[in-house]
Design goal:
By secondary structure, the chain is an all-alpha fold. Helix content is 68%, strand content 0%.
Length: 314
């Protein structure tokens, strides 16, 4: 399922795009936001399929070795532990995954060189050698190997990022989040469960509504919320305040005032972390200071109303 952190990032990016494009259509901008969220969920499925294609390459390579005119003993009796990995087989046999990939025209079939490079990298790694030769034979061992593959090979493989960026402008920044979903899917695999359990797009109904409601609230009230920002940055040279900083501050103000079940600290911490990755090096400290002052003002005016167990603040 897509994390709240990712949904917040999507909202910030959608707000930035809306204001920079000088669009006056909330509906169009919200459609773009939802499209961006859907693309991350597609990436999750596509990355799951990646290990299936790498296994197919390994199987073809083993078969070609057997067909050599002068095969070596290793060619005739290859180590097929990876080819027979039961966790990969579970993914390959998932009808739900197949239907989703077909419905969204998602495939690695046009990138055989990527699959070859991933296989070569994988076979040169210590975790691969250990897995192939440790003599252990269990479903848990197979799943552990897949986790190593996705965290060791996929996360930092530059050619993959290049290809993903070619396919969608949304994907290059989303790999980390999609990989977290892949690892959670693998972690949840049980030998006695014959079907692969794919994660849902959202954890619950609240998460499904979260991004859209936050985005709409920030847009509809952006002039009022901008006044809070302007009031608490009067001593700053406005030209030196990064535009992204203003957008990042706009989103948490909207969240503070429209999401009564989310603790203030959670909201502030989330957007300060987002600022570290999506604005200038000094932005997180600057945003932290300004938001602290805004929260103080909102509390003094009785604007922040947190509800629920453990959320009512003194």
């Amino acid at each position: 399922m897509l994390s709240r952190r990712l949904l917040r990032i999507k909202v910030v990016k959608a707000l930035y795009a809306h204001f920079k494009s000088e669009s006056d259509s909330l509906i169009v901008s919200e459609k773009n936001l939802n499209f961006s969220i859907d693309k991350t969920y597609q990436l999750y499925h596509l990355l799951l399929e990646l290990i299936v294609d790498v296994r197919q390459y390994a199987a073809r390579k083993a078969e070609l070795g057997r067909q050599k005119l002068l095969p070596t003993p290793e060619d005739l009796n290859p180590n097929l532990k990876f080819v027979r990995n039961r966790a990969v087989e579970r993914i390959a046999e998932s009808e739900e995954l197949k239907r989703y990939l077909e419905a969204h025209s998602l495939s690695w079939s046009n990138y055989p060189e990527l699959i070859r490079k991933l296989y070569q990298n994988m076979t040169g790694r210590e975790y691969y050698t250990e897995y192939m030769n440790n003599g252990k034979d269990s479903f848990t061992e197979d799943v552990k190997f897949l986790m190593n593959f996705f965290t060791s090979e996929v996360e930092d493989f530059d050619p993959l990022y290049d290809i993903l960026e070619e396919q969608s402008i949304y994907w290059a920044d989303d790999v980390e989040f999609a990989l977290i979903m892949v690892v959670r899917t693998l972690h949840g695999m049980k030998e006695k469960e014959p079907q692969l359990r794919l994660l849902p797009r959202f954890k619950n109904e609240d998460d499904r509504k979260f991004a859209g409601e936050l985005f709409r609230n920030a847009l509809v009230n952006h002039r009022k919320y901008s006044e809070y920002i302007d009031t608490h940055t009067r001593n700053w040279d406005l030209e030196r305040i990064a535009y992204m900083d203003r957008v990042i501050m706009l989103a948490p103000i909207a969240e503070l005032l429209s999401c009564p079940t989310i603790p203030v600290k959670v909201t502030l911490d989330e957007y300060i972390e987002i600022a570290k990755y999506y604005s200038t090096p000094a932005s997180s400290t600057f945003i932290n200071g300004v938001l602290d002052k805004i929260v103080e003002k909102l509390r003094a005016d009785g604007m922040i109303d947190k509800q629920g167990r453990g959320l009512v603040e003194s």
